Every structure is written in C-alpha cells, then in structure tokens.
Amino acid sequence: MLFLFSLRLRLSSGRGEDQTDGEPDAALIERARDGDLPAFNQLVARHERAVFNVALRYMRSREQAEDVTQEAFLRAWRSLESFRNDAGEGFRAWLLRIASNRALDVLRASSRRPADSLDSKLDDDESAWEPEGKDEGPLAFAVRGDLGTRLEDALGQIHPDQRLVIILSDIHGHAYAEIAEIAGVPIGTVKSRINRGRARLRELLLADAESRELLGVHARLESGDGHV
Amino acid sequence: MSDDTRERSLHAARDASTPPNGSDGDPTMIQPDQHLDAEMLSAWLDTPDEFSEQDRLAIENHLAGCAECSQVAAELTAIVRAFQTLPFVEPERSFSLTPEAAGLVATPTLPSSRRLEEPSHLHERALEKNTRNQVDHYEPIPWYERQMRALRWATTVAAMLFVLFVSVDVLGNIDGGSDDADESAAFSEAPIPTQAAAASGAAATNTTASGMAAPEEEADESARGAEEDSVPDASSDDDVAGSAPEPTSASDASGTTGGAEAEEESPPADAAAEATAEDANTMMVEVPSEPEQADQAQPNDESVSAYSGKDMTEERQESNTLHLIELALLIAIAWLIVAMIALPRLRRPPA
Prior knowledge:
heterodimer; A: mainly alpha; Rna Polymerase Sigma Factor, Chain: A; Arc Repressor Mutant, subunit A; 2 domains; 11 helices; about 65% helix; B: mainly alpha; 4 domains; rod-shaped
C-alpha cells in the first residue's frame, strides 16, 4: 500500500482553466485600463468560469454566486489601476481575491442557509459527472459521484477560511502561493488550513454511517484494492 | 480498534509531535510508536518533499506497519481525489459588463424603483442588495430607457393632437348645430321638407316619412321645416315627389286630410313611420292656424336654398378628413402604448 502514499495529491496546475487562447492577459489588461471594455470582457470570458465555480462552492447558492461573480468583475473593472502586475500574472488570483472577499462579506451578513443548494444543482446536472477514466467502472463512478455530493455538503459545514483554501487547493488546484495571495494570509497558514480542513471533512464523513462506508469503499478503490 | 480509540490515538500523536505541519519549518521528529495525526498525514501526502529525510522515513515506516494510519491516509487521499474530480458548473449567463454597467454611458440619477428594474443587471441588483454601503452612486441609463423616453414624448404629442382634433370636430358641430337640423334634413335622403309646405307640405312630409321610413327626429325636423317654410316651392315639390317611392296625394288641399290619406294609402308603413306621420299631422294641424309663422320664416328659405350641393360635399369631406385624422391618431397612440409595454421586456442590450 505504500505506493499509494508516494502520490502527490496536489495538482501540478490549476484545474478548470478557461480558454486562454488569443491575446495574453497583460495586453488585455493594458487595453482595459485605457477604457477598452471589449478587452476587459475578453478577460471576463476567460476567467468567469473559474471565479463563478469558486464562488458557487463557497457560497453554495447559485444566485449568490452569480451576484458575487458579477460584482467581482465590476469591482475589478473599476479598480483595474490597482492591479500592479504589468506582466498580467496573477490576474485570476486577483479576481478570486476580490470575489472571495466579497463572498466572505456576504456569508457573514447572511446567516440563513442557502435556499438553492449546490447539492440539488449537482443532482440536476448529473450529466456533468463523467467517468474519471476508461478504467473506472460503474461502481467506482457511482461511489465517486455519491461521495462527491456528500463532500460538497460537508464542505459547507467547515469553517469558511478552511473551505476557501480547500476549494482553491483541492478542487481548483491552485498553488500554495496563489492561495496565499487570494486568501491574503501567509503560505504556512494556507497549509495549516488545508490540512485542518481535510481532517475536519474526514471527521464529518466518518460521523455518518453511509458516508463512512462510501469513503471506505472509495479509499479501497483508490488504493487499487478492488475487494469491496 | 474503534473510531473513538483511533481518534484518541491520533490526538495523542498530535500532542506528542507538536504542529504536524502547517508551517514551513521542519516538522518535528515522528515517533514511530505513535499514530500519525490526520493533519500531518495530509501535509505529508501533499508535500512529502518538505519533510526532512528522517521524518519521511519515519512516516513511511510507520505507515507500512500501521493499518489504522494507512487507512487514515487512504481516506484523506480519497477525499482529495473526489474533490479533484468534482464537475465544474457552467455559468448560466455571461458576466460581461455592458457599457452602462461599466459606467461608460451618461449616468443621470434615476428613481431607485426604476433602478431596480434595470435589465441585464443582476449585478446591479446584487449591488443594491449586498453592497448598498460600499458601492458608489452608480445609476446608468439602460438603452431601452432612452427609447422609452422618446416613446413617452411621442405618445404625449399624439394624445394632444387627438384631443385637439376632437375638440375642433366637436366645436364645429356645436357651432353649426343650429343648421344641423336643416342640414340633416337637407342631406338626408329625405328632401327638404320646406318644399312640402302649406297645402301640400303635410302630405309631402307624410309621404317622406312613410316612404323612406325616416327616423322620427328627421320627420320632426322636416315637419318643423314645413312650419317655417310655408312658401311652396314647385321644384322642391318635384324633388319630394321624385324621392318618395310611393308618391301620395301631395296635391291635396288639406294637410290634415292629406296626412290621413297618406296613412291610408301606405298601409305597409311601419310603426315609426306612423308615429312620425302622427307628429307631422299634429304640426300640420297648426300650420294653417298660424300663417304668420310661415311669413316670418320666409326669409330662411333663402339661406336654406343657398345650400348648394358643392358646399355640403366640401363640409362633409372636411368632416371625414377630421375623422380619419382622429382615427390615425388613435391607432398611433395605441401602437405607442403597446411599444412602451413591450420595450422593457426586450431587456437584451444591443450588441
């Protein structure tokens, strides 16, 4: 089983990258600074998917996520001068920082439970669940889908600080440095939050009998032990 | 080992091994005989390179001999793998900024109620809802709002024109109201009743009433005309005879008897015609008894006869033109109102 632990869990690059063909971010940013709205909207089209998905998983409400995403781009447009990196690097991180700050504000202001659950959204969007690979059998596919749904639910129960870094790290595959920039905390804090968040998620899953069973099955499937 | 026992062991391991990771500093020495903390395992799974060689070996050795810690590591791995394969949700709309939203369009202040109805701008509603204190006064005019203003102006102008034309029409009718009776009588298919005055007038009137089944008012007007215009007119008489489908004894000396004869001779006449005939008869009774009225009314005969067919046609055409204009204005107003209702629904700004 030791080979399992030689795997690095972290993704090498950001997941869910939007289309980046065409003009680089730096050029578009430069034009947008001169008031070129179409150029800015190209940046929007390039990054809106990532920003929206982070907001959606963080807010767990589509309506709120849309509001936060739209406001993030609006604020970005208005404060484009404050984005310092002339090379255009870190623009997505900058956008995500704006969005996550706004999302945190909304979460603090709103104590109600989201009416439009992400779970229901994903339940409705089962077509999005594709087998991870050709080798993945129907059992593994079903277990992963069910576990993912439960993880989404558990994600909503952990501390928002831990939730944000887990979303950025494990779902979107951002590097520690990027997450630190987005969250506005040192890298060490990011790591700590990630590890505590994962441990907390595991606790939450183990607290429920069905989730515990699913986690066990998925762990065995992941480790290559097919004896389920 | 139960879960509780395992958790206690992990807590014991965490207590013994100070912060498992969470910082960039060297992790503390791993005790081979103690269970590994879940947080430490998470860190080790993520970035084993950040552990010292000694700690890495200690962890690997421990995992090789400890099924429980291996299970924890496997569960953490499963969690992260499940996260990594979560589907991305496609946004249901674009978040591109419109020129209005970006503040590139003139931004006069609008009423707040209208601002909330602005199209496209979920973000504007979000700003209203969530960031009322933080967002600057941002009140763009949407494209349809500008067109809406033009529509309002057009509707107002059309409505004013409509009122103007209707007023002219009504006032014109009032001014010419005194003549209308004569006009209506003159223009109606029933000929001017004055021609049937005096001796043959009543009979002629009766004939008209019964023959044409003219409305009672018309017959009354005709009768009044007959009272006023007591001078017989041969040419008119011909007209009367010509227009009456069933010419009766228009040459009777007595209007009363003539009327009676007319009634008798026209049995198919309907009830209205009979009533009209009675009215006419009643009036005709008075005609001979007040011949002075006929004398006073004699000058009117000239004005009545002054009505040429051409003038009447022109007036009629003017009236028709007015009505056409009024109708056109009504249609325009209706169209504009429909446009104003439909426009806010077309919330997509032009590309």
